[in-house]
Amino acid sequence: MGPGTTCANDPEALHWCRSITASRGRMIDLSTYRPRGDKRNTPFFEEHLPLVYERRVRSGLDQLVGTMAALVVQVDHGHGLAHLAELALMGPYRYRECWLVETHRVYLLAADPAWPRLIVLEPLTGDFEDESTRWNAMYPLAAPHPNARYVGEIFHCQSCSAVRDLLEAQNIRFVYRGETPNPFYAQPNLSFTFLSDYTYNRVGYVDVPLDSLAPLDLGDRVLLDDDSERPILEAAELHRTLGLEGKVLGIDHMATRVLAGEREDAILEYLTMVPYYFWGAYNIHEMNSSTNVTRSPRVADEKQSPARVFTANNTPSYLNSLANLPMPTEEFVRNFGRRMHHIALEVSDGESDGLKHVDMVVRNLQNHGVPFLAEVVGECTDQPNLKQIFSKSSAHSLLITEYVQRCQGYEGFFTRDNVAALTEAAGHEERFSHGHVFD
Ligand SMILES: [Fe+2]
Known about the structure:
By secondary structure, the chain is an alpha+beta fold. Helix content is 28%, strand content 27%. α4 packs parallel to α7. Mean pLDDT is 91; it is low at 1-8, 14-23 and 432-439. The site of fe (ii) ion (FE2) has 5 residues, from β10 and β14. Fe (ii) ion binds at residues 253, 255, 342, 344, 402.
């Protein structure tokens, strides 16, 4: 869809248009919606959340910006192809295209056309440096992986320049050509914010469909040679032969970890930039943390525009010894910096060979050498519930993959017991790793 085409005159852009104007969503009235959960917010948050929603409507952001178009992950030089193979084995995302910009290879991956794309950035040299590299360098467990970092989400919009004009008036900063080394972040039809001080993530906006990266005019397209593509194709074939195809579905949510004192700012800033709503927040007492969920009101199926979760410790690290509670979230942020912690893939609800699908997926992946943290948590009996597990973090992206099966149509977003067990398992890993696990 190029300049001059609109949702009205280009039937081929129907899916993209729907993603902006989707009407089959949850029909949430944000003026009356009461967030779920027992995590108490400060009066500051309660006062400003409705003001953020009102400003979005008044300024037009809710009309300009739609659902999630893509997730962007950067890996270190030399890790791109191996990460694409890892993704093909573990989930539904498949390599589609590779483009070359001045500093990076840009890989496009896709799964179901209705789900966001996945974009993997790989620097062309080992000494590439930008803002992400400098953030990574400050943290002990991130520094050995200078460019491995989840970058952020890209949202469909009607006009990137209109979104910039609107949000810059609200003190959101964008990246322009020449201000950052990687030209991918500042394209005429694709625009990214500067890294958030609260999450170290960017938000991107795109005003063309992302079925291909050709409309972005990035530069030259690269065709992978057979030797480069073979491991990716073999991983996809193994995914099929292990019976995972159609069982491991799209992205349910992503969870970012922030400092205890920045929880409310991180959420309110995100809700300033994207048309999501604060679904609710739960206190996970055992892990001294809270899980805070934002979702798109425009979709009935999370996989079309995944939920964005924020996890924060309840108390900052320097106060923690007073009560001597666990603090895995604060430890993670101190070790890796504020960053995305995991991406959760939905597993279809059902059984194969007497095993719940999530148990089957984990068993088959484990048999082929994929390591997991602890066991599947949650019971699926006759009650609706969730079964979940964390993989070990990727050696390429540092991201954990979560598999989640919603048994009996479980509608909630998580269970407190599961989150406590998962957080504890990840905390053991991160506490004991000290940089060795990801070698
Ligand atoms: Fe999760």
